[in-house]
């Protein structure tokens, strides 16, 4: 592999290689479906249900970033959305497709890196990310914001869930500079409300709050230690 840095993209790819879990890691993560991973359950996020059923934000066409086994994409498709969903792991895409076939739902699941895949610009009412953003290294945040903004139509909404800084289930409290000093995200990054408002300043903030804890018998997924945030493209 050519390791000469000549362009900005070369620099990003070098930093990615130092900090990002390889695709094989995520393929292995989703290979064992019996693991006691909270978000392996087939339930939508409680905040997503609120956005759709109470706030009634437009979700005619949706892009999901980091779909995992497809639980949120399935919910959106069942509520009439045309959903395009991506994930880095082929094992999670396979699992999501199985779930979709069982419910006879037509969802476009694609395997790939969100910074390398092409999306139709200005085509989506809603972009959703449940747990992808806190695995994104700081040097990729401008690209992440560009992907989201380019995908959304004017006035479209973007929402995410991510770890609270120093939260119960994850969310390192390291600074962005420390990520590069230590050459590690320490698993995943945590955020404060102030950090989220600063990072996503290009968007209008509609709502930032902690995720509501859901009981195992509830029809939704809810876990303490996560932020939920809803933004609108200006």
UniProtKB/TrEMBL annotation:
Limits of the Methyltransferase domain: 62-156
Keyword Transferase in record: yes
InterPro entries hit by this protein: Methyltransf_25 (IPR041698), SAM-dependent_MTases_sf (IPR029063)
Pfam families: Methyltransf_25
Domain of life: Bacteria
One example GO MF annotation: methyltransferase activity
Keywords linked to the UniProt accession: Methyltransferase, S-adenosyl-L-methionine, Transferase
Statement: the UniProt record of this protein carries the keyword S-adenosyl-L-methionine: yes
GO biological process terms on file: methylation
Protein name stated in the entry: Methyltransferase type 11
Organism name: Exiguobacterium sibiricum (strain DSM 17290 / CCUG 55495 / CIP 109462 / JCM 13490 / 255-15)
Taxonomic lineage: Bacteria, Bacillati, Bacillota, Bacilli, Bacillales
């Amino acid at each position: 592999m050519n390791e000469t840095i000549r362009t900005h993209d070369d620099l990003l790819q070098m930093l990615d290689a130092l900090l990002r879990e390889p695709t094989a890691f995520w393929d292995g993560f989703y290979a064992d479906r019996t693991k006691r991973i909270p978000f392996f359950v087939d339930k939508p996020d409680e905040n997503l249900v609120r956005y759709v059923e109470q706030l009634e934000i437009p979700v005619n066409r949706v892009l999901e970033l980091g779909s995992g086994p497809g639980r949120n994409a399935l919910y959106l498709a069942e509520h009439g959305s045309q959903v395009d969903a991506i994930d880095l792991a082929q094992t999670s895409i396979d699992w999501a497709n199985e779930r979709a076939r069982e419910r006879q739902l037509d969802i476009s699941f694609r395997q790939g890196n969100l910074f390398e895949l092409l999306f139709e610009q200005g085509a989506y009412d809603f972009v959703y990310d449940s747990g992808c953003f806190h695995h994104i290294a700081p040097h990729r945040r401008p690209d992440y914001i560009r992907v989201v903004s380019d995908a959304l139509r004017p006035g479209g909404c973007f929402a995410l869930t991510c770890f609270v800084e120093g939260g119960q289930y994850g969310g390192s409290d390291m600074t962005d500079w420390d990520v590069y000093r230590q050459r590690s995200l320490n698993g995943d990054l945590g955020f404060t409300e102030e950090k989220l408002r600063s990072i996503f300043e290009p968007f209008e903030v509609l709502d930032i709050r902690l995720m509501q804890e859901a009981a195992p018998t509830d029809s939704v997924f809810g876990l303490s230690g996560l932020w939920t945030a809803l933004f609108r493209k200006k």
